[in-house]
Design brief:
The protein has 11 helices and 15 strands. It is of the alpha/beta class. A hairpin with a 2-residue loop joins strand 2 and strand 3.
């Protein structure tokens, strides 16, 4: 970096944003640039002016804040850590209340993003049937984060020889459940209905926990024999796992004038930075479609 001008790469590092965002700021006229040959440069005085602007990127301004509500997932935890470390102008506030309630909070305008994995039993499709039902006119972007493995979390070595949903009704099996409104609970209840299993025949069906790690902890401590959850939670506590299905975990972004810049920065982080590489070691996820826009309504 020299004393007189900055390149777009240097601006991106200085403000901890993507180079794409720098070009967007220039395109919108918020940051003045000039060209030397075919290369873009930003004058030092312009950088100082931009720093002191009443702008979300300026250091004198409060953080851009995004409210995410919905399902608990380790990808969301990693996203928050990544943003905190790499983009200090952006803040993500999560509320882990389950997929359905997260979608309803977005519908009511109480959040900016919903994190969901909701199975529609009639179509067998995840997320989009619910999104299209609730949101008819609102500007939306639905972003695929990953497909993830859901299944039975069990003790190491599977001492109770659990194989399928019917085994949950055995008298020597204690189950631990997720709360009503969670995507995992949707999957469980739909599967029980398909197998014609009465929930009241499952010991522990009424015992509810609020995230996958809590389910795994019940199994690890011997309080329960089995729970439905994601492979990543089982791996973290060195438990065994029996796959049941692969499900789509998506982010639903609802745009408005107040959150437009914050949501654009979030998209930049997901699509244009090294965040994908930072989660590559997490087991139980398929990130082949990571960052893909699967539905959009302007």
């Amino acid at each position: 970096m020299n004393d007189e001008t900055y390149t777009p790469d240097e601006i991106a590092k200085l403000f901890k944003i993507s180079k794409h965002t720098v070009y967007e700021l220039v395109k919108r006229g918020e940051l003045q640039a000039f060209k030397v040959g075919n290369k873009m440069r930003i004058d030092k005085s312009e950088v100082e002016r931009f720093k002191n602007l009443d702008s979300p990127t300026g250091k004198n301004e409060q953080l851009l804040s995004i409210q995410i509500a919905g399902s608990h997932d380790f990808l969301i935890e990693h996203l928050i850590k990544y943003v905190t470390k790499q983009a200090d102008f952006l803040s993500i506030q999560p509320t882990y209340i389950g997929s359905l309630e997260g979608l309803m909070m977005l519908y009511r305008g109480s959040s900016d993003v919903a994190a969901i994995h909701l199975l529609d039993p009639s179509s067998g499709e995840y997320n989009l049937p619910f999104i299209k039902l609730f949101f008819v006119h609102e500007p939306l972007t639905v972003l695929r984060l990953a497909s993830r493995e859901q299944g039975f979390i069990i003790a190491k070595g599977n001492p109770k020889e659990i194989k399928n949903f019917h085994d949950l009704t055995r008298k020597n099996i204690t189950f631990v459940n997720r709360q009503k409104g969670s995507g995992t609970r949707f999957l469980l209840d739909s599967s029980l209905a398909n197998e014609k299993i009465d929930p009241s025949s499952i010991k522990g069906y009424e015992n509810e926990e609020w995230n996958h790690l809590s389910i795994a902890s019940y199994i690890s401590r011997g309080i329960a024999d089995v729970g439905l959850g994601i492979r990543s939670a089982a791996e973290q506590l060195d438990l065994d796992f029996i796959p049941v299905t692969n499900e789509q975990f998506d982010l639903v972004l609802r745009w408005n004038k107040k959150n437009e810049m914050a949501l654009q920065h979030l998209l930049d982080v997901i699509q244009l930075t090294s965040f994908k590489e930072s989660i590559s070691s997490l087991k139980g996820y398929n990130t082949q479609e990571f960052g893909k826009i699967i539905h959009e309504k302007k």
